[in-house]
Amino acid sequence: MIKVDIGKCTGCRMCETACSFFHTGAINRHMSRIKVIHHYGTGVDGPVLCRQCEERYCMDCPSNALSIGALGQVIASPTLCTLCKGSATPTAKGTASTLTGGHNKKVYFSGKLSQGISKKCERNCPIGAIEIFNDIVYVCDLCGGSPRCVAACSEGALSFVPEEKETISLQNLVIESKKMNPTEKRSLYIAEQGQKLRDTWRN
User: Fold this and answer.
1) In whole angstroms, what is the distance from residue 49 CA to residue 66 CA?
2) Does the structure show a pLDDT above 50 at 35?
3) Region 141-155: what's the mean pLDDT?
4) What is the pLDDT of residues 175-185, one digit of tens each?
5) What is the pTM of this model?
6) How far apart are CA 8 and CA 168, in angstroms?
7) Where are the domains of the chain?
8) CB under 8 A, 24+ apart: contacts of 114-123
């Protein structure tokens, strides 16, 4: 897993650059699987990425498009992911049916789509570490075992410890982050981490 020392982060965003370029060939923080947040309230910069949490909230995928790799990383399957668009709730006047022709699969529905189920993995992650951009799921996959963000961090804020299976619980953030978008969730998480860091400064 990737360990984070928030006290060493300077907010340079080199981790974002390395991540997006390695995965997409472009430098675009929207396509980075790690996001650096500057929280003005605490004055702390910190990276947010998948913490391989104990609860694994993102695994509640109706399409089984997410799985856990050998290093504990989340692996997203672009072929299985439907962005939860196939989920429907039949009403008295409508039913859901699927017509398949060749390799093309279309879902026909006469009725009402269920509300709030779209992008379930993105909704379920309490720290905004998994996000959908341009219909693609972005989540840390450890670059297959050689995380580029760690190599790019000159301050030592990120370290890769594959043999360590640290269990982190994010349960305390679930209720407060429930109605937030990924950006707001990341800010909430860094605010919490930043406050913990500031508390150590007083000691």
Assistant:
1) 16
2) yes
3) 97
4) 999 999 999 99
5) 0.82
6) 20
7) 2-59+122-201
8) 114/87, 114/88, 114/89, 117/62, 117/84, 117/87, 118/83, 118/84, 118/85, 118/87, 119/83, 119/84, 120/60, 120/61, 120/62, 120/84, 121/58, 121/60, 121/61, 121/66, 122/182
